[in-house]
Each structure stands twice: as structure tokens, then as C-alpha cells.
Amino acid sequence: MRKPWKTIVGFAMIGLAITGACYADAAFRDYTKPMNGLESAVATASLILCPPQLLFTFCIDCEAIGRGGFIMYSIPGPILFIQSGSRGLCSPK
Q: In degrees, to the nearest 5, what angle opens at C-alpha 46 toward C-alphas 23 and 7?
């Protein structure tokens, strides 16, 4: 049975959009203020929706703003793109 490409590409684009949202969250978060419950929930959801971010677990002094952050998030972007596309390939019709 042949899988429609719209489903596969759709899932893959959702994965890329999730990575972009996680990058935007990391870039615009103010780390100088104490963390509240909402920010904790957003950070947890971000790690659940984009597991390739766990590659940055030991990156203590990394800035998510600017070119360095864009390069840093260009690693989990394609990983989640491929992972989500695989989910689209395996999804039932």
C-alpha cells in the first residue's frame, strides 16, 4: 500500500514548526527572572514535543539568541523533521 506524500510531508513540517517554536521560546525567554509555574510547564512541554533538544543538556553557557542559537537549533530541526516524517509514514490511513 502506497502512503500519500501529503501525510508524510505534513507530519514532517509539523515537526519543523515545533522546533521553530522551541527556538523562539528559548530566544525570547528572560533567564534573569525567576522561573514561575507557566514557564516551567512551557519548558517541560518543549522538551516533550522536541526531544532532540536534550542534545543541549550539558550546554550550560550557550546563547539561543543570534547566529549561534540558530546554528545550535539547526541540529534538532532536521532530526525532528525526519522523526516526524517517519511517524507520518507509519500512521494508519
A: 85
Amino acid present at 46 = S
Measure CA 33 to chain center: 23
* Whole-Å CA distances, 15 to 76, 79, 86: 10, 9, 11
The number of distinct structural domains making up the chain is: 1
CA quadruple 45, 67, 29, 34: dihedral positive or negative?
A: positive
Q: Give the pLDDT of residue 93.
A: 65
Give yes or no for residue 1 having a pLDDT over 60: no
Q: Is 60 helix (H, G, I), strand (E, B) or coil?
A: coil
CA dihedral (56, 59, 64, 67) in degrees, to 10, reads: -100
Which domain, by its residues, includes 74?
Answer: 5-90
CA separation for the pair 34, 20 (Å, rounded): 24
- pTM of whole model > 0.85? no
